[in-house]
Amino acid sequence: MAIPHLHSVQSVRVSSPCRISFPNQYHCGRSNFSRKSSSLVYASTRNFDRDLRLQSKVETVLDSVKWDDKGLAVAIAQNVDTGAILMQGFANREAVATTVSSRKATFYSRSRSTLWTKGETSNNFINVQEIFLDCDRDSIIYLGKPDGPTCHTGSETCYYTPMLDLLEHRQDEEHKLALTTLYSLESTIAKRKEELEVPESGKPSWTRRILSDEKLLCSKIREEADELCRTLEENEDRLRAASEMADVLYHGMALLARKGVKMEEVLEILRRRFSQSGIEEKRNRKSQA
Amino acid sequence: MAIPHLHSVQSVRVSSPCRISFPNQYHCGRSNFSRKSSSLVYASTRNFDRDLRLQSKVETVLDSVKWDDKGLAVAIAQNVDTGAILMQGFANREAVATTVSSRKATFYSRSRSTLWTKGETSNNFINVQEIFLDCDRDSIIYLGKPDGPTCHTGSETCYYTPMLDLLEHRQDEEHKLALTTLYSLESTIAKRKEELEVPESGKPSWTRRILSDEKLLCSKIREEADELCRTLEENEDRLRAASEMADVLYHGMALLARKGVKMEEVLEILRRRFSQSGIEEKRNRKSQA
Fold it and tell me: Any idea where the Phosphoribosyl-AMP cyclohydrolase domain is (chains A, B) (predicted)?
């Protein structure tokens, strides 16, 4: 489908029209400020023309954003590995341009009327890997990796107040992160692990049993992997394959809980491998050996 | 950490102050409109007091939202299983109240000055399972399951325009969904599967090899599951466990690709099992047998 008007400069009101400083001229006075955005950074004069072309392209893309009457668009920061929505702010033209050049999620503070980079106080930057515009071009995702908890309260994300839970369970206060399925499961398994300290009356849950019995857990992981394979080997239906993969995932995550490993770490490994063609490279190496 | 001022009614300007109709009095005139929100629906008069208390609680929670000068807050719809950000709109008091009662993601259209429920035209509703408020109480996540593609263009989500890719690869138009790591990997494997039709010159990639060799793929899945188990049995370090789990996941996903199964289906199974204590129940049943 066509992406509308990328090269048509739209007439927009911008509260703080800016020249974009390209290449990277973003300075925040921190020694640990990563310069990993170097794919866009080049200093030699022979690249001057390329710089100009890039700057022009950035201006064109920014022109295509439908800034609101205050020159702002909604900007949502999302964890590239877990998918967690970390925070939401607003960005003006300069904030997006700064994010493009610095690769640190940068917003416009409406209360302080100033640009701010998440992490400039806490050091918990959000390292942006890609910026997405929505179909209407008035909403932006900063897809990136946070250096630490994003919320100023110390919470991993800013979304920890579940409205329906509050209404249904009549609790006045509750801190429950907005977790998607995989991380909700991880959280459940982690809770069962904590509960191992407490003697259980009655029949132990399956999760408790595999968490407290290494032999049982490992035999289940091998068994479920085998069952997953047999869905292919014995041409079982696709729903059976989905179900067996769910079993593999669940039991594997119980093992991770035993080892104190988060799924986010597993996904980070996969991201790094694939961005470096690492699995391909590793396997080819293995098969050559 | 404390959730601020849940019970303190804040002075807010609301563009369309509303009485909330509780229980479920949301009607959209569609026969397929789910009434699964029945946990909040009760008709008997003996529950009248409970209804009133619930209505009062909803009003209190809505009072705690920091509506902007137009009576709006940002509302982000997120896929509960994949974590994908589906769309972003704005919600007023009435839109959130409607979402609470109908469990269908509902927004306020600024251009049409009217409430709208995503799916009322396309039938692709977003079935909301939980609503989260952020720390500042001016941003909302509708965490739910979409019935189909969310974007009016037919795209799965509204975010498919990658800004940095556009800048770096000099492509004027590109359609690339904002995918987090797991789904980016899934997409890569799916591409390799498509490429199986085309004869490859040179050494085939590992992904291509396992996709085209069922025996090799299954032997790798069993091998990686075994290696994962051994990180526990032989007390290997936690990074080794993360790495082996990454291998299990990657090879398992290659098998899913062969079977035409999406990770989203696997996660949906896990969500249903855990919300129904299904795994617990299934395992207990198995162990009794």
Answer: 87-160
